[in-house]
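I'll show a record.
***
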Amino acid sequence: SSDLSLKNYYIALNNLFTKYKDKNIGDELSFVATALKDNDPQALKIAGNIASSYKAFSKEVIAIPVPNTFIPIHLDLANNYEKTGESIDGFTMLFTDPMTSMKAVINYKKYDDALLANLQQLFSNVK
């Protein structure tokens, strides 16, 4: 992995984060909380849209050329974005299937923690 390939990789990731900046990624729990507080199914639909953004982000991450040293962490990053999106999809069943939704909360915590660890690992080397 050359310095140039690392630089290009970080630029591509940064561009992708910028592209998804206005997609509410990271705000999903506030919409779920609103749904619970106000008994508002529309807030869960917004959370579902955020889940779609996580999944789309995951697909675009896969398309980024990756320096060899980052292949394992990059794959984990893409998978954890996808799995976080799937977990958020489970939140949307809060009013119709509470048991599935509770399982989704457990999975969300696991994948969100893994996602944060992936990002810390990737960006701990940025100079």
